[in-house]
Structure prediction request, 440 residues.
Amino acid sequence: MKIAIVGTGYVGLVTGTCFAEMGTEVFCVDIDKNKIEKLKQGIIPIFEPGLDEMVERNHKAGRLQFTTDLSSILNEVDIVFSAVGTPPDEDGSADLKYVLDVARTVGQNLNKYMVIVTKSTVPVGTAKLVKKTIQDELNKRGLSDLKFDVASNPEFLKEGAAITDFMQPDRVVVGVESEEAKRLMEKLYKPFTLNNYRIIYTDIPSAEMIKYAANAMLATRISFMNDIANMCEIVGADVNMVRKGIGADARIGSKFLYAGCGYGGSCFPKDVKALIHTANKLGYKMQILEAVENVNEFQKNILFDKLMKYYNNDIKGKTIAVWGLAFKPKTDDMREAPSLVLIDRIIKAGGKVRAYDPVAMEEAKKHHLGDSVIYAKDIYDATLDADAILMVTEWNEFRLPTWEVIKKTMKKPVVFDGRNIYNKEEMNEIGFDYFGIGIK
Prediction:
């Protein structure tokens, strides 16, 4: 079986590579010629653990190929996945330009039956737009009777664990509108069903909605716990104890109940905004999600506010060590990262920043931080003459540093822990002032 994956970002490249790993012949397509040439050379444009080895293995075996020309391979494949970006517009809506560009290319070159599958996260109703766009192009070519199907197969990949999520998922959601499309998708996923994949078939609008609803629920749990954490500090409670207590309730569960300095990344912020925007267009107000978004924006400022309070609202000339820049560990993704808000506010307040992240520093420089931040070689270099440490991203290597060494290199031994990975009593015994999130 042959398929095409259009878009070689996190979703497209991981999807194509994992399908190739299971024996499918895959063409990964991207309009970026430089990216495609690098992929042919084994140079991966993203940081994802284990992906580079898998790409190299399948490319050498001939199962994974790279091209910039969808039209040249379109009629060789049975399924085309659209995994292009859907960046948010200023109003929060998803920009479908690239999705519809793929649809137009398909319509302009299609000569046989196939299924066009949307893998990108898109608003409910996008499949109808894709189908209409393809049909309009076929009509222009005098091929109005040429049969094709559209489908929705949303991704549920966590950056840093994307390969595991694809190969061992909680579920696979496939939205179809014909038995023929369903049979083709079943054939594609058959090697995975032998490993007890749970595949849920739905109508297309439900599949499109499932992805948004899932991310919105997870974002809600994060913002809820951050709100609870802030209340805990006021009343003298410990959010870690509260988390354990409510997480023991089987109706709630323990996942996504960790307080912190806000969520970021390519999914939660974008999808929450898009769902709010879609509802507004339909005359409905997503009151809970609007609160979720507001809490998250507030939470991205929480470490800065604690820092300013500690130094009596004056950090001019002070050096602040920032541990972690990516929005989460095991990725170099800086999109909507809390560190961006934090560093911007420190610099505007007259502070200096020495930052370290195991993989995201080059990506951070693209976000206008290059001239304003000193990038350290490791966590110890970052704390040199620092007046405070702000722990922002909970990389494993940050969990057990040699605090005695760090204390000697700092001007002031104080830690603001944005992920609650340290123990307050232990830090105080070592001689550090310690401030977490939601901890009395």
